[in-house]
Amino acid sequence: MKSNPGVWVLLGLIAMLWTTSAAQAQEPPAAERIPPLADSLQIDPPLVFCGEAVPLLTPGVRERLEKELLLAVWNRPQVILWLKRSRRYLTPIAGILSKNDVPDDLKYIAVVESALRPDVISVKGAVGIWQLIRSTGRKYGLRIDEVIDQRRSLDAATGAAVLYLQKLHAEFGSWTLAAAAYNIGEKGLHNAIASQDTVDFYRLYLPRETQRFIFKILAAKLILAHPRKYGFNLPEKAFYPPIAAGHVNIVCPRSLHLNVLARAAKTYFKHFRDLNPQIRQPYLPHGRYRILVPVSALPGFVQRFRKAASRAPAFAPQHVYTVKKGDSLSVIARNLNVSLAALLRWNRLDTRRVIRPGQHLFFYEQREPVRELFGGRRR
Known about the structure:
Elements (H helix, E strand, L loop, with lengths): L4 H22 L21 E2 L2 E2 L7 H14 L1 H24 L7 H8 L19 H6 L14 H19 L2 H10 L1 H11 L11 H18 L19 E8 L3 E2 H7 L4 H7 L7 E2 L2 E8 L6 H11 L7 E4 L6 H8 L3 H8 L12 E4 L6 H4 L6
Antiparallel strand pairs: 1-2, 3-6, 4-5, 7-8
Helix pairs in contact: 2-9, 3-4, 3-6, 4-9, 6-7, 7-8, 7-9, 10-11, 10-12
C-alpha cells in the first residue's frame, strides 16, 4: 500500500497544532510568570536610600548592588517569607518609624538583620528583629536580664533601634553612614573616614560585611517595594495576619507561673509566650510588667488577672545556681546532676551563648513533677 504524502502533511499539522495548544494551556498567566533573572537588573533611576541618592554611575556601585539583588531574587523562599511576615512585623515597624519622624527606608535594616524573626540569636549574641547586642540594648533603655529580654519585643526593640539610629545620624550627618555604623560600630566607621579622608559611604573601603550591608538593604527595598516586578505575586490571604493584641501594664504581687496570666488572657501557655517573647522564664517574679494580651481578652483582663493572682500559689524554681569564674554549661549540668539539654531549656540558652560569673541559672530536680512545674497541684 502506497503512503499518501498529503496524509502525512496533515498529520504533521495536527501534531503541531496540538503541541502548541497544549503548551499554551500549560503556560501560566503573565501575572504568575517568573521573569528572567537578567530582568531584575533593570534598576530605574533615581534610586535613593532615606532621601540620599545612590550614585549608580560611581565605579563599582551598580555592580555591587546587582550582585545583592541577584542573590536575593534567586533565594525565592527567603523573599516569600519576607513578604509573608511583612504585615505582621514590617507594617508596625513603619508606624513606629513614622511616629519618631525618621525615614521609612530604615525598616529594611530589620529585614536584612533578622529576616523579620523576633527570636533569632546571632553567634555574637545579638538578639531579636533588630539584632541588638546586650550593651547597646541597655544603653537605649531596654531591660535585659534572666527574666526579661526586651530585644525580643517588637515595639521596645524598634524604639531602641530608632534612638540608636538617630544618635548615629546626628554623629555622622547621613542616614547611609548611620546604617553602616549600625553594622560596623561608630569607632570602626570613624577610623575608616579619618584614614581615607572621605565621608561618602560609596567611596569608603570597609569590611566586606559592612560594604554588603547597605547594598543588601537596597536590594530588600527594591524587591519589597515592587514584589510583582520580581515575580513575587502573593495573594492577599498568603500574608501572615498582624498580631491582634494590645499592651497591658500589670503588677505581679509575687512570683507567678505564666499559666495564671494565660488563663486571665483567655488563651493557652504557648500562645501567651509567643505574644510575649521578651519573657524568658515560665514565670514572672514580683514586679511591674508590660505585656501583650489578645485583643479579644483585653476587656476585663486586669480584673481577671488580679483575681487569679490572689488565688494562685507563689511559683519559683526549686534551685538557683550562681555562675562562677571558669564554669561552663556542661560542667554545671554535670555538677548539678541534670542533663545539659534540660539546663539549656530551663534557661532558654544554647551552647553558643557565653555565660558570665554572677549570672543566675535556674534548675529543677531532674524528675520534677510536671503538674507542679506548670502551676498544677500534686495528686
